[in-house]
């Protein structure tokens, strides 16, 4: 009876009429909660449908991209490998034939080749320098040994640092004749020094053909021109005698704002500069400085005088000589007897006094020679030249 009465009391709660407060309020609360849950369920269902639609769209988009990628790959790679001449039916039976050109530029490759890494500039003060060196000329020095000691040097005596970009390209020029013994020692010491100095360089041995009087300065002019023929990027030129070896690798073989004199303290002069205007042994000029003085004189046949003429040319052109510290610019000379056909030039003192008159007509612009052979050796480039004979009478001026 009690249950029936409770059910009857709850029946009017559908519209919540009547004066009964307790049961009617409970039934209203239940209806309110039921409606709220129904709305929440609908919202969750809509969110699930939206998420599903987004997932389907993304899936088909990624699938389309993968399909396109593999289609391009299969069209470019395997198709070409299996049918290398598919684009030209007329040449299929001729394996060495060239397909006819359509006249249109070829499309650029979709995958460019690897680019060379950009190297940093070489430091002004190379970190691997040793400083003072022990130089001796008593041990045998075969060229094979020198070659083994310098595996990074390319044919012709060319070298480029692998870890940095030098600011200059240096041509080292050696006037030469009958000094093979000295050249081996020079290469033995100088290649490691130049590599430690982080230089991009090439070695040029300019060999005077024949037995006529030696002409050092003219050979240097020849070396300047021939080096530029091989590599027009040379912008620094070091002119070195083959019997002089630096005793300190901090004596950097570079060119600067002024012409450079490197060999300022030779052992044969007691490691002192013999006189203020001395410019012999080893010197360096950049390209513009060399052309500004019209190169070196061609008329100094025999020993002596050309260095002082070059010094005069530099002074007359308004430039000054730069030199390293005397403790760094020390050199050892390989002892030897005076070469045959290189006797002292008796006209040298007169010529030195006339540099102002001769420098414009005698120099790089007037040099005449004939190249007989260019031979690129593992450690240097040999240039054999015929530079003619000295005149039988002194030239005017």
From TrEMBL:
Q: Where is the Galactosyltransferase C-terminal domain?
A: 260-337
Q: What is its main location?
A: Golgi
Recorded catalytic reaction(s): these are: a beta-D-glucosylceramide + UDP-alpha-D-galactose = a beta-D-galactosyl-(1->4)-beta-D-glucosyl-(1<->1)-ceramide + UDP + H(+); N-acetyl-D-glucosamine + UDP-alpha-D-galactose = beta-D-galactosyl-(1->4)-N-acetyl-D-glucosamine + UDP + H(+); a neolactoside IV(3)-beta-GlcNAc-nLc4Cer + UDP-alpha-D-galactose = a neolactoside nLc6Cer + UDP + H(+); an N-acetyl-beta-D-glucosaminyl derivative + UDP-alpha-D-galactose = a beta-D-galactosyl-(1->4)-N-acetyl-beta-D-glucosaminyl derivative + UDP + H(+)
Locate the Galactosyltransferase N-terminal domain: which residues?
122-255
Transmembrane ranges, per UniProt, are 40-60
Q: Which GO terms describe its biological process?
A: carbohydrate metabolic process; cerebellar Purkinje cell layer development; locomotory behavior; memory; visual learning
InterPro entries assigned: Galactosyl_T, Galactosyl_T_C, Galactosyl_T_N, Nucleotide-diphossugar_trans
Q: In its keyword annotation, does this UniProt entry include Plastid? A: no
Q: Which domain of life is it from?
A: Eukaryota
Region (Disordered) residue ranges read 84-121
The protein's required cofactor(s) are namely: Mn(2+)
Q: EC annotation?
A: 2.4.1.-
Topology relative to the membrane, per the entry? Single-pass type II membrane protein
**Pathway of action:** Protein modification; protein glycosylation
Example GO molecular function: N-acetyllactosamine synthase activity
> One GO CC term of this entry?
nucleoplasm
Subcellular location as annotated: Golgi apparatus membrane
Q: Quote the PANTHER family the UniProt record gives.
A: BETA-1,4-GALACTOSYLTRANSFERASE, BETA-1,4-GALACTOSYLTRANSFERASE 2
Its name, as the record gives it, is Beta-1,4-galactosyltransferase
**What gene makes this protein?**
B4GALT2
């Amino acid at each position: 009876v009690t249950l029936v009465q409770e059910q009857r009391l709850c029946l009017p709660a559908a519209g919540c009429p009547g004066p009964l407060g307790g049961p009617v309020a409970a039934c209203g609360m239940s209806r309110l909660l039921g409606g709220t849950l129904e709305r929440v369920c609908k919202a969750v269902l809509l969110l699930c449908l939206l998420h599903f639609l987004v997932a389907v769209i993304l899936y088909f988009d990624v699938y389309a991209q993968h399909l396109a990628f593999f289609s391009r790959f299969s069209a470019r790679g395997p198709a070409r490998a299996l049918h290398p001449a598919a684009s030209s039916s007329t040449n299929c039976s001729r394996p060495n034939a060239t397909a006819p050109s359509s006249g249109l530029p070829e499309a650029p490759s979709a995958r460019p080749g690897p680019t060379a890494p950009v190297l940093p500039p070489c430091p002004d003060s190379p970190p691997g320098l040793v400083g003072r060196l022990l130089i001796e000329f008593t041990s045998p020095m075969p060229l094979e040994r020198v070659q083994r000691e310098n595996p990074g040097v390319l044919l012709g005596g060319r070298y480029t640092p692998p870890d940095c970009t030098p600011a200059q390209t240096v041509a080292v020029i050696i006037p030469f004749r009958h000094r093979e013994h000295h050249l081996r020692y020079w290469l033995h010491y100088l290649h490691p020094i130049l590599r430690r100095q982080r230089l991009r360089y090439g070695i040029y041995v300019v060999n005077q053909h024949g037995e006529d009087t030696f002409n050092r300065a003219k050979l240097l002019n020849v070396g300047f021109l021939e080096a530029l023929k091989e590599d027009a990027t040379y912008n620094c030129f070091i002119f070195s005698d083959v019997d002089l070896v630096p005793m300190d690798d901090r004596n950097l073989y570079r060119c600067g704002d002024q012409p450079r004199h490197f060999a300022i303290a030779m052992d044969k002069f007691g490691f002192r500069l013999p006189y203020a205007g001395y410019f012999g042994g080893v010197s360096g000029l950049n390209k513009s400085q060399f052309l500004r003085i019209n190169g070196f004189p061609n008329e100094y046949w025999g020993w002596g005088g050309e260095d002082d003429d070059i010094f005069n040319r530099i002074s007359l052109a308004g430039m000054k000589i730069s030199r390293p510290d005397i403790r760094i610019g020390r050199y050892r000379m390989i002892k030897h007897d005076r070469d045959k056909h290189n006797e002292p030039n008796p006209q040298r003192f007169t010529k030195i006094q006339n540099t102002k008159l001769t420098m414009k007509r005698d120099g790089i612009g007037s040099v005449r020679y004939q190249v007989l052979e260019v031979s690129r050796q593992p450690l240097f480039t040999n240039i054999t030249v015929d530079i003619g004979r000295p005149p039988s009478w002194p030239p005017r001026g």
